[in-house]
């Protein structure tokens, strides 16, 4: 398997960045394995789903970030699960945690959002975990697109656990407006659930037009990422993308 490009700044001010989307199941599994997987991927941004939400949740998320050579940008219990981590390469301009309308009887959902800068680029970022219920999930996909459009940034990425395959209506709604990074430039593995027997792709990273996708997929066989750690870390496989973001 070819290696993904390393993070770098181009002479024209554009930036090659690595983005990881990962459902970490509230860090209820092997957190050492989880940190090893994240660190080996050398991400500039991590879009987290199911971050810790209860007792000492901030300390738990900060501990994971520190073990992965990252910092916490935003999210966690304040978004009911989604969060954003970054490397020190990112300069954070602003953050906003968004709670979505609550359907009685269902888990409340939210978005973790931020605007960050890498060298001469400015980038909107959103981490999501969409509903298990089909109609609510479709509505949330629409809210996600509305949120991205309202961030006031030309270039935006969004990623997370969609709880739906690419042929589902919510996934298709997102892919109709945004670039499905895996479909644009397949790399690594395809299926993200379950680690023991992956058979479906329900996690994804999307980008707005103008962002070049250099490769995207599950980092199976990536240097430092072992099958043992992937199975032990959580109940999803991560999605790793290399993107070239134009200078602002």
Automatic annotation (TrEMBL):
GO MF term list: endonuclease activity; hydrolase activity
| Record's keyword terms, sorted | DNA damage, DNA repair, Endonuclease, Hydrolase, Magnesium, Metal-binding, Nuclease
Q: Name the cofactor(s).
A: Mn(2+); Mg(2+)
Q: Which residues form the Endonuclease/exonuclease/phosphatase domain?
A: 20-236
Signal sequence coordinates: none
InterPro entries named in the record = Endo/exonu/phosph_ase_sf, Endo/exonuclease/phosphatase, TDP2-like
> What protein name does the entry list?
Endonuclease/exonuclease/phosphatase family metal-dependent hydrolase
């Amino acid at each position: 398997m070819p290696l993904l490009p390393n993070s770098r700044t181009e002479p024209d001010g554009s930036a090659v960045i690595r983005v990881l989307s990962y459902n970490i199941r509230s860090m209820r599994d092997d957190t050492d394995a989880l940190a090893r997987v994240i660190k080996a991927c050398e991400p500039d941004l991590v879009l987290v789903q199911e971050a810790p939400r209860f007792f000492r949740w901030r300390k738990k998320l900060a501990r994971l970030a520190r073990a992965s050579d990252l910092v916490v940008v935003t999210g966690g219990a304040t978004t009911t699960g989604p969060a954003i981590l970054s490397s020190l390469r990112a300069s954070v301009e602003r953050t906003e945690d968004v709670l979505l309308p609550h359907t009685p009887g269902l888990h409340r959902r939210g978005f973790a959002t931020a605007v960050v800068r890498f060298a001469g680029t400015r980038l909107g970022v959103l981490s999501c975990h969409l509903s298990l219920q089909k109609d609510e999930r479709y509505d949330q996909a629409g809210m996600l697109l509305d949120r991205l459009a309202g961030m006031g940034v030309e270039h935006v990425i969004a990623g997370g656990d969609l709880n739906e395959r690419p042929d589902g209506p919510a996934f298709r709604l997102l892919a109709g407006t945004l670039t499905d990074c895996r479909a644009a430039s397949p790399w690594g593995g395809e299926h993200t659930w379950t680690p023991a027997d992956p058979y479906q792709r329900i996690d994804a990273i999307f980008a707005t037009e103008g962002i070049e996708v250099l490769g995207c997929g599950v980092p199976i066989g990536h240097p430092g990422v072992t099958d043992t750690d992937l199975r032990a870390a959580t109940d999803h496989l991560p999605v790793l993308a290399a993107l070239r973001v134009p200078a602002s």
